[in-house]
Amino acid sequence: MIGDTLRSERERQNLTIQDIAKGTSIRALYIEAIENGDYDQLPGTVYAKGFIRNYANFLKIDADAVVRQFMEENHPEEAAAAEEAKQQLAEAEEANREEVKQKLATGSEYREHVSSSSNRSNNLLIALIVLLVAGGAYYLFAMDDSSAPKQPAKAVTQTAKAPAGTKAETAKPEAGKEVQPAKVDGVELVAKFTDKCWTQVVADGKTVYEGTMESGKTETWKGKEKVVITAGNAGAVEMKVNGKDMGKAGNAGQVVEKTFTADKAGQPADAATADKKDSK
């Protein structure tokens, strides 16, 4: 069981559960649940995978292999589907490499490149000829016109003056009127981290970040329709959405999921707290 593997490695490194909790910002009760295989105590599968990956990274063992073992033990159908997709991707890449090799072997790629280069050279040559002809015509015209008498040109200087009684004015915002932040297309989330925090960000249904943010980091994520942020230590995350200050995501040590949509920019569409075991 994956919990036994993590516990054994922790004990081998002479680390306590509190050491892991401090180093990963994962609550001690979740670490105990992982080691005991009691995954019902965790907020959900996504959180479980994130916590296990973070735990394995802290112990400096193969996090991908540990997460894969967790999925095979607890969600075999999803693990099999992921493995099949990986195999299909590998086969597609291999087929693409074979196609490139075939093109190179038949010389079609080389002929296309030579033909393209030849066309560019012809275009440059035509442009050069046109330029030379135009230059020659201008030179002959200037020579024919050189016998005509010429009058010295008079230098005329004019100064543009503003109409009397007018002054340039700078537009100023009306007194007492709040300056609105610049409009942003879609959803723009800026997150500042004041402590370590396991974080997952999903923009328009695609996971764009999953890992542990360090204290002092500031990151920006954008989505056309929706941005969802999940924080394992909500009190360490200060957020701005489309320029509007949203404050902290939650309390220290709390697992929180926030959803922001384009039609309600600056307001969380769903601020559900995923820390179901807060009362323990």
Automatic annotation (TrEMBL):
<dbReference type="InterPro" id="IPR001387">
    <property type="entry name" value="Cro/C1-type_HTH"/>
</dbReference>
<keyword id="KW-1133">Transmembrane helix</keyword>
<dbReference type="InterPro" id="IPR050400">
    <property type="entry name" value="Bact_Cytoskel_RodZ"/>
</dbReference>
<feature type="region of interest" description="Disordered">
    <location>
        <begin position="159"/>
        <end position="179"/>
    </location>
</feature>
<dbReference type="Pfam" id="PF13464">
    <property type="entry name" value="RodZ_C"/>
</dbReference>
<feature type="region of interest" description="Disordered">
    <location>
        <begin position="260"/>
        <end position="280"/>
    </location>
</feature>
<feature type="domain" description="HTH cro/C1-type">
    <location>
        <begin position="5"/>
        <end position="66"/>
    </location>
</feature>
<dbReference type="InterPro" id="IPR025194">
    <property type="entry name" value="RodZ-like_C"/>
</dbReference>
<feature type="transmembrane region" description="Helical">
    <location>
        <begin position="124"/>
        <end position="141"/>
    </location>
</feature>
<keyword id="KW-0472">Membrane</keyword>
<keyword id="KW-0812">Transmembrane</keyword>
<dbReference type="InterPro" id="IPR010982">
    <property type="entry name" value="Lambda_DNA-bd_dom_sf"/>
</dbReference>
<dbReference type="GO" id="GO:0003677">
    <property type="term" value="F:DNA binding"/>
</dbReference>
<dbReference type="Pfam" id="PF13413">
    <property type="entry name" value="HTH_25"/>
</dbReference>
<protein>
    <submittedName>
        <fullName>Protein RodZ, contains Xre-like HTH and DUF4115 domains</fullName>
    </submittedName>
</protein>
<feature type="region of interest" description="Disordered">
    <location>
        <begin position="86"/>
        <end position="116"/>
    </location>
</feature>
